[in-house]
Amino acid sequence: MMNSSGVAVEARGLTVQRGSRTVLKGLDFTVEPGRITGLLGPSGCGKSTLMRAVVGTQAKVTGTLQVLGSPAGHPSLRPRVGYVTQAPSVFTDLTVRQNLDYFAAILQPGRAHRDARHEAVTRALTEVDLTSHEDALAGNLSGGQRTRVSLAVALLGTPDLLVLDEPTVGLDPVLRRDLWQLFHTLAAERSTALLISSHVMDEAERCHRLLLMREGEILADDTPDALRTAAGTDTVEEAFLHLVDAARKENAR
Ligand SMILES: Nc1ncnc2c1ncn2[C@@H]1O[C@H](COP(=O)(O)OP(=O)(O)OP(=O)(O)O)[C@@H](O)[C@H]1O
């Protein structure tokens, strides 16, 4: 169930304190079902912190943050939200399939669900194109392959919301293209809401909507087309730089 306005994530005045610093400064934004929302901005601007708040693992969060109709981090959201962190979380001493079997057993425990679990694991392996490596030890995989194991884990429960922190870092161009195709398929066919961070600006063009961040604030929230048109630029990267310069000038006044 989404919330009453049909959005997957709704943030109002979202503020996060880390140590003595205010890392997110009163953000308002939404993430829609069936849409890929890109979270872009330079290193350290607060992308991971925002994602951690959405999945409920960030401390010192204030403001309103509703996820799929419940407060962020509510236990009922666990099977409905998939999260892939920047550092892939896999057991290196288990094979790829054993990793997935383990997490599938947490989501759907018990003998009665054995066939459903097997099916879910096989589907997730196919989606991330790791079927041929299912018996390989996760510890022997490349960085990009481990990222895909983590992504497969996130896809196990067919989540309504997928939160992916820089999922294509270290992947070759073919895999990046294939993963973006998968993200679009999930949005179009399952109405999954995807929140994907990146600092690779060419990936911005593949998102339905972009949240451009800088120093804990959202500089712009629009479609790639609208951002380019408003800034009078050919690329989202140029539009972003234009917005950063405008914000700097404003601050200097
Ligand atoms: N434990 C902490 N205590 C204080 N400040 C922190 C802590 N962890 C992170 N920060 C600060 O919070 C800010 C946001 O960090 P965050 O990891 O969210 O950025 P990011 O945009 O995801 O960066 P990257 O693209 O490099 O991953 C950074 O300026 C960082 O220095």
Automatic annotation (TrEMBL):
GO molecular function, one term: ATP binding
The keyword Methyltransferase belongs to this UniProt entry's keyword annotation: no
InterPro entries cross-referenced by the UniProt entry: AAA+_ATPase (IPR003593), ABC_transporter-like_ATP-bd (IPR003439), ABC_transporter-like_CS (IPR017871), P-loop_NTPase (IPR027417)
Keywords tagged on the record: ATP-binding, Nucleotide-binding
CDD domains tied to this protein: ABC_DR_subfamily_A (cd03230)
One Pfam match: ABC_tran
Domain ABC transporter: 9-240
PROSITE patterns listed in its UniProt record: ABC_TRANSPORTER_1, ABC_TRANSPORTER_2
PANTHER family named among the record's database cross-references: ABC TRANSPORTER G FAMILY MEMBER 20 ISOFORM X1 (PTHR43038:SF3), ATP-BINDING CASSETTE, SUB-FAMILY H, MEMBER 1 (PTHR43038)
SMART domains referenced in this protein's UniProt entry, alphabetically: AAA
The protein's name: ABC transporter ATP-binding protein
